[in-house]
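> call design_seq(struct)
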């Protein structure tokens, strides 16, 4: 209940690892958060809030376990998980993306059920990033956690937050996407995260049904114009939004174009 199953198995196989220390690994981090949950929780009794949140987290954790992820920690309603540690998982990036597609589907169902009960349960936003990190037992002699240190966790958290501006629920960095040849994705743009100077290519992973949809094909054509600074880019996105008004990413780019922005480079002033 208190330690991720993957970590327990690792320690059972090699008890010597139950000590402070770490190692460099390439890992993929998943960061999830529920939109508006703090405001929702302030208006609910603990007797109602805690069982609801536990039910949600239980469903999320079950999916993480099914994809052999390691739960790093809970931060309130946020979930932080890692793939590629403690055990070697050569496909950790693709495994993480398939995992978040299942997490997204579960979270949507859970939110819809609670809304039907009269509870304004927000959408779950998810960020995914792959990179190098020091992973291991970090802390003091009396208390430590199996976790990661490095600049891999932070981009995952920033991408989670970027969803609310981009019109998405799930954002995957280019370093993750390039390792997922068998998962369909669509490009969102080159995102400059707050506190950074270099842009990160960002993608939205797509399930099989969405990947084959006409809206995605039309979006790819419009995005290609955006990347080339085609003079008909704005017209392409206007037609796209008119035909598919539910496409948040298309609406985001159209708003940028109407504000005079061009190209695929996106700078966010907020987290």
């Amino acid at each position: 209940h208190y330690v991720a199953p993957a970590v327990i198995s690792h320690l059972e196989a090699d008890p010597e690892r139950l000590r402070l220390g770490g190692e460099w690994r390439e890992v993929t981090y998943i960061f999830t958060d529920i939109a508006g949950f703090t405001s929702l929780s302030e208006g609910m009794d603990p007797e109602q809030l805690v069982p609801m949140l536990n039910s949600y987290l239980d469903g999320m954790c079950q999916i993480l376990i099914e994809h052999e992820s390691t739960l790093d920690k809970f931060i309130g309603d946020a979930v932080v998980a890692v793939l590629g540690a403690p055990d070697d998982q050569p496909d950790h990036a693709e495994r993480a993306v398939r995992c978040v597609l299942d997490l997204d589907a579960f979270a949507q169902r859970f939110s819809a059920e609670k809304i039907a009960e009269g509870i304004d349960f927000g959408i779950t936003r998810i960020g995914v990033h792959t990179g190098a990190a020091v992973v291991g037992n970090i802390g003091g002699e009396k208390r430590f956690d199996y976790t990661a240190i490095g600049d891999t966790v932070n981009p995952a958290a920033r991408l989670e937050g970027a969803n609310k501006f981009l019109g998405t629920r799930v954002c995957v960095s280019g370093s993750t996407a390039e390792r997922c040849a068998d998962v369909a994705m669509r490009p969102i743009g080159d995102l400059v995260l707050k506190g950074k100077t270099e842009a990160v290519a960002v993608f939205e992973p797509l399930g099989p049904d969405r990947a084959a949809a006409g809206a995605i094909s039309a979006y790819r054509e419009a995005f290609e114009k955006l990347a080339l600074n085609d003079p008909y880019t704005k017209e392409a996105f206007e037609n796209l939004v008119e035909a598919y008004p539910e496409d948040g990413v298309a609406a985001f780019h159209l708003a940028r174009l109407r504000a005079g922005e061009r190209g695929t480079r996106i700078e966010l002033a907020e987290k």
